[in-house]
Amino acid sequence: MATPSQALVVIPCFNEETRLNTTRWQEAMSTYGFDLLFVDDGSSDNTPELLSQICRENPEHCSSLHLENNLGKGEAVRRGLLQGLNKNYDHLGFADADLATPVDELARLHTRACQENVAIVLGSRWLHMGAQIERTGTRHYLGRFFATSASLILGLPIYDTQCGAKFFKNGPALEKAVSEPFHSAWAFDVELLGRLLSGPHALPPDALLEVPLRSWHDVPGSKLSTPASIRTFAELGRIALALKKWRSG
Ligand SMILES: Nc1nc2c(ncn2[C@@H]2O[C@H](COP(=O)(O)OP(=O)(O)OP(=O)(O)O)[C@@H](O)[C@H]2O)c(=O)[nH]1
Ligand SMILES: [Mg+2]
Asked: Which ligand is nearest to the CA of 12?
């Protein structure tokens, strides 16, 4: 058995046969040294076969987890992180299958996590000069409203809680934070961060670093429907209550 890479990237995948760029994910392993764990939960297209193929071609660095029923992105990520926790990775992260955050940016986030004494690194889609952040106006402004609400719930000035690219130091704080299912399939990032920063193994706020991405592009074919995005806003209330309970132990 090969020595594991320093970092495992969990990739939730639901019906991704048209968006999964296996060449780029291959590069994530061969050029950047990541190990990959794809989590598919009940895809009805060719995703399971594509994942089997990439895992067969890279048996030492790639694996997949197949759940029978569709449980949503949050649960897929949680199951993947749970599976990675007891391996010897320094960092566990997650990223979207569509590589909206490109592989070299994932590598830069992981490098920052290694170089700086932080336990959480968040990719941040800060639209500014010099960065290529390509999102439609509607998604940008809805995203800003959501992120502002989320940062109020967390009591921290986090610019972007929802970017699909994040890395965490392996350890008890992460283990505790993923020990129970989240209350939301899409806003789970807020709950995950809230759990990491409070409760029994709470990390201090300065253990969190947001890294503005140099490049991020919205890939057509989002699985987040308009009704689901409205529900996700509503779920912030439930998350706020759940975190209150979490904080009180
Ligand atoms: N396993 C699993 N993965 C899911 C599910 N829903 C979404 N995903 C994955 O979550 C990731 C993000 O999904 P997208 O459809 O790109 O969502 P999006 O609205 O574009 O989100 P952003 O890119 O973060 O703005 C992708 O890798 C999806 O395959 C699900 O029910 N199960
Ligand atoms: Mg996307």
From this structure: 1
Order the strands of the 208-212 sheet from edge to edge.
62-67, 35-41, 7-13, 91-94, 166-169, 120-124, 208-212
Within-domain flag for 2: no
Residue corresponding to tokens 């961060």: 193
Could you tell me the sign of the dihedral formed by the alpha carbons of 15, 121, 105, 134, in that order? positive
- CATH code of the domain in which 241 resides: 3.90.550.10
Question: The pTM is what?
Answer: 0.96
Of 72-81, 145-154, 229-238, the poorest mean pLDDT is in 229-238
Contacts of 138 (CB under 8 A, 6+ apart): none
**High-pLDDT (> 70) share of the chain, %:** 98
- What DSSP designation does 5 have? P
Q: What is the Cα–Cα distance from 197 to 89, expressed in whole angstroms?
A: 21
Rounded distance between C-alpha atoms, residue 217 and residue 163, angstroms: 11
Query: How many domains does one find in the chain?
Result: 1
Residue 128 within a domain: yes
Specify whether the CB–CB gap between 6 and 91 falls below 8 A: yes
CB-defined site of ligand 1, < 6 Å: 12-14, 16, 39-41, 70, 72-73, 76, 96-98, 100, 162, 164, 222-224
> For residue 232, is it within any domain?
yes
Can you read off the two tokens belonging to residue 105?
């940016």
Is the pLDDT at 2 greater than 70, yes or no?
no
Q: Please report whether residue 80 resides in a domain.
A: yes
Q: Domain of 25?
A: 7-247
